[in-house]
Specification:
Blueprint (H helix, E strand, L loop, with lengths): L7 E11 L2 E7 L12 E4 L2 E4 L1 E4 L2 E6 L1 H6 L10 E6 L18 E11 L2 E7 L13 E4 L2 E8 L3 E6 L1 H6 L10 E6 L1 H12 L9
């Protein structure tokens, strides 16, 4: 489990095709400090298992399913990626609960600079529409963000200077795809409501 608070931006150093999946190598220094092989690290919002951990980076296997459903299908050597280690009992939950299970891809419609802030408009597919609410949470590229505006097929997020600088958002442009994960609490609420049995009252 993660919080959507990015710790470090790493760089894709190597991509090796393996059967229908791939193994990637990511250069990083902060998230590897207390990470051992087998630990989970979110990479652009995708929960991956760290392998071959060194002080300068780690590797991870990416399955066919992950390649198909995330931006990893198009990622290239040199790409900047958001990194976050999994939470511990001592971690402050500064963002929201993020599982690292990407629901779908969104597409950046526009990026506008407003003084020291940026507004990013993102289009989203129908499948996550029930989970998006105004002022609610969503993970974009693994970043915990608040929906600042919402319509039938797009939403906007306001980006503060620190988030802009310390994540890969400043490397993206209109037309780029991004990983989206809806709020897990919204999913549970929908599931609970859909499974409730409506009692049938009979007359005496």
């Amino acid at each position: 489990m993660f919080t959507g608070i990015i710790e470090e931006v790493g760089t894709i150093e190597r991509i090796e095709k393996r059967d229908e999946g791939a193994r990637i190598r990511i250069s990083a220094s902060l998230v590897t400090e207390d990470t051992k092989e087998g630990d989970s690290i979110a990479v652009n919002g995708v929960c991956l298992t760290a392998l071959e951990v060194t002080p300068n980076g780690f590797s991870a296997d990416v399955s066919y399913e992950t390649l198909k459903r995330t931006t990893f299908s198009k990622i290239k050597v040199g790409a900047k990626v958001n990194l976050e280690r999994s939470v511990t009992l001592q971690t402050r939950l500064g963002g929201h609960i993020v599982l690292g299970h990407v629901d779908c891809l969104g597409k950046i419609v526009s990026i506008k600079e407003n003084g020291d802030f940026w507004t990013i408009k993102i289009s989203y597919p129908e499948q996550i529409k029930p989970y998006l609410v105004y002022k609610g949470s969503i993970a974009v590229e693994g970043i915990s963000l608040t929906i600042a505006d919402l319509d039938e097929n797009t939403f906007e997020v306001a980006i503060i200077p620190k988030t802009w600088t310390l994540t890969n958002l400043h490397t993206l442009k209109a037309g780029d795809e991004v990983n989206l994960e809806a709020d897990i609490i919204a999913k549970y609420v929908e599931r609970f409501l859909s499974c409730r049995e409506i009692p049938h009252h009979t007359s005496a």
